[in-house]
Design a protein that fits this description.
The protein folds into two domains: 11-120, no CATH class; 132-242, no CATH class. The protein contains ten helices and four strands. It has helices spanning 11-22, 36-42, 107-120, 132-156, 158-165, 170-177, 182-188, 190-197, 205-211, 213-242; strands spanning 57-61, 64-73, 78-84, 93-99. Helix 4 runs parallel beside helix 10, helix 5 crosses helix 10 (213-242) and helix 9 (205-211) crosses helix 10. The relative contact order is 0.08. Residues 3-104 form the Beta-lactamase-related domain.
């Protein structure tokens, strides 16, 4: 483990930890591990206020705290721990869930967690979840197909594109072609971007693929399509600029000299 996370544990160990927090600082067998005052401090936001205590998020309904929770995720695992305080002196509940997966959106994990909370609170059978990951993957499939189709069409039309622009200055052509490098750069930087989104974590290509394969496929396909368009346009531009310029049809022909009399 390290100071900011990365604890290797199990759902059973997390449950024991939650018993201490919901039992005034004592373990299930009565052994005191932390004082009640220290426990209250852990569950109380700092001087700045807000709803974040010492490693715990607080959900409120008016002045009453309805949920004390905290979770975390790596790209290959995720977990959530929740305390549901009791009312009127009644004991509360603790829920600990550990997953051996962690998708980029975390939708399925949160659906399971909220379903367990609903069952514990007497809400009955949870509603059928919205298949967020399936919907997002379907959207990515559409984007992948669009990148392939648009890329193929632009490669096919690269010759006509080059003929219309072949006589422009070199700096202007570079500015025209430069945007084709943006998808390539974004693809190469995908792990770094994912790391920033995930809270400045170190993300490898393997981890990015594990977290959201459809996104990685789309980034690679979009980059490859853009690179193919760029290569085709540059190739046709070189050919057009090396060929002699066609006669200007808008310019009238030069007058023929009249024979001397």
């Amino acid at each position: 483990m390290n100071g900011s996370g990365g604890v290797v544990s199990t759902a059973e160990d997390l449950a024991r930890w939650l018993i201490v927090h919901s039992n005034g600082g004592a373990a299930a067998d009565g052994t005191r591990l932390v004082s009640e005052s220290a426990l209250d401090t852990l569950h109380t936001p700092g001087p700045a206020g807000g709803d974040y205590a010492m490693g715990w998020d607080l959900d409120r309904s008016g002045d009453r705290v309805t949920r004390i929770h905290h979770g975390g995720a790596l790209f290959t695992a995720s977990a959530e721990q929740i305390l549901l305080p009791g009312e009127g002196g009644e004991p509360g509940y603790g829920i600990a869930v550990a997953f051996n997966s962690a998708g980029a959106l975390g939708a399925e994990q949160m659906t399971i967690i909220e379903g367990l909370v609903e069952i514990v609170e007497g809400g009955g059978q949870p509603a059928a979840p919205v298949r967020v990951t399936a919907i997002s993957d379907a959207a990515m499939a559409v984007l992948i197909a669009a990148a392939l189709v648009v890329g193929a069409l632009r490669v096919r039309r690269a010759g006509a594109w080059a003929r219309r622009r072949a006589r422009r200055s070199a700096p202007l052509l570079v500015l025209t072609l430069a945007p084709r490098l943006v998808p390539v750069a974004l693809c190469l930087l995908l792990p770094a971007i994912a790391g920033l989104v995930m809270g400045a974590r170190d993300v490898t290509w393997e981890a990015a693929w594990y977290g959201w394969p459809a996104l990685v496929v789309w980034a690679v396909v979009a980059a490859a399509a853009s690179a193919a368009v760029l290569a085709a346009r540059v190739l046709h531009l070189v050919r057009e600029r090396r060929s002699p310029a066609p006669p200007d049809a808008t310019r009238p022909p030069a007058p023929r000299p009249t024979p001397a009399t």
